[in-house]
Amino acid sequence: MSSSLLFLSLLLAFVACELVYEDDVLTTNAGVPVPNWRQSQTVGVRGPALIQDQLLIEKLAVHNRERIPERNVHARGATAYGTFTTTADMSNLTTATLFKGVGTKTDLVLRFSTVIHGSSSPEWLRDPRGFAIKFYTDQGNYDIVGLSFPVFFIRDSIQFPDMIRSLKPNPTNGQQEWWRIWDYFSFVPESTHMFTWLMDDLGIPANYRTMDGWGVHTYKWINAKGNATWVRYYFASDQGTDWIDDSDAGNYYFSYATKDLYDAIDSGNYPGWTFYIQTMTDDDIASLNWDPLDTTKAWPEDQFPFQKIGHFVLNKNVGNQFLENEQAAFSPGRFVPGIVASDDKMLQGRVFAYADTQRYRLGVNYQLLPVNAPRCPYFDSHVDGAMNFLTKDTEINYWPSNFIKTQQAPPQPEDPEQVSGTKQRAVISNQDNFEQCGNRWRSFDSDRQARFASRVASALVADRVTEQVQNIWLGYWSQCDPSLAAAIKQDMAVLKKIDFKLIHKMQLSEEEQARQQTRMAFMVSSGRV
Prior knowledge:
By secondary structure, the chain is of the alpha+beta class. It has helices spanning 3-21, 54-64, 160-167, 178-185, 192-198, 246-249, 256-266, 282-286, 321-326, 345-362, 435-443, 446-460, 467-480, 482-496, 510-526, and strands at 77-86, 105-114, 129-137, 140-147, 213-214, 219-222, 228-237, 272-280, 307-317, 339-341.
């Protein structure tokens, strides 16, 4: 069967299933009519129940298996569909057809998420937000798996498992605790920049609509001549950005962000984002004193201006949260011709890890699921495996073959970079861990600086944060900007006068009372003790 016929048969199969599913008679999952859905089969009116009652067994067995492993990160999320439209022709930089011409339209699905907390957590907790897009292009699916911030905590993916464990609950008492976080990151000075985003006002967005997105990683675009350009992505919210204060966060509805997004789309108030890129050449890289592949660094706008290339709108809600949100699967390693991975150490690890976690959660055939399947004709190379539901009436399940007409695609320009070097485990040479952190702090107005310093101080005096770790962090903040360290230290001094375990018996000054209330609001909104 040709790839186009295979795709058509898949669609027809889903349509047929939907028509049967919407019949007005209750049946078992095998299609057998059920005259009594609410009573189990028993011996007499009072029982006992009979093991032969397959309706009872089926209902209980299905219920026992309704949940699949949740994502280790990004478990809590909301998804919507939309359309991307180009406003500039980028064919001079890439052969990717979704960026070719002006007015080119591409369907997409976007999943917003919190990062660290579980699927049952409140959406108002302080956390980075995921911003994952799947473009259904005519060359196959292209995924951009980004964040609400332009940078990340670490620059090497080998550190990712330990980092996530430090942010997750203590394995002994089941609580997320600041002492574990500050302890781990005291060995990661490059994380200071990310903390200036996480502990800033934007750490709790007002909703998903008023939130920018960033690609975080550096990618390479390859044009028809085989020339490469370094690229980063930015998605600016048309709605502007807005945030929730710590003191208000706990008053919000548990699923406020999901509700806001769903209700806005349902009422026709479609949210939109403008798609920008930043570009860099090899000559640009040679003049920098920092590494543009470092995910703890942003590309300064004054050096690398944002270029508008398109716009997308979310205009359709999902029809089923499990099928289209929980089973939506994204990977930063899912490229189309004209786009390739850079040598970014975080990206190199995520290229494997994100696809692999979906194979674990959803099975090896997860890309056959409707939300994940390409919308262009494609050659399906899935062979058997768990839950492979496609009908294939061909004897040829290999390639090449003289019995089928399928051929390889025309050659595409490859990444021209030549790579050589010794095998080693080493830190990058141009680290510069504190300059961008200090620049961001200095960009805040005085009130915003005070709120930031207050949050950091509250977390640094949390239970079991040692003086050694506190001093390490004050040293890091001082290297960002001495005034930042001084503001945090001053705030810590006020908090250290308060014995939080005996606070109900203490007489506090007005300053101490106000500061304690601010601290408690932050601790609640951070979800950590």
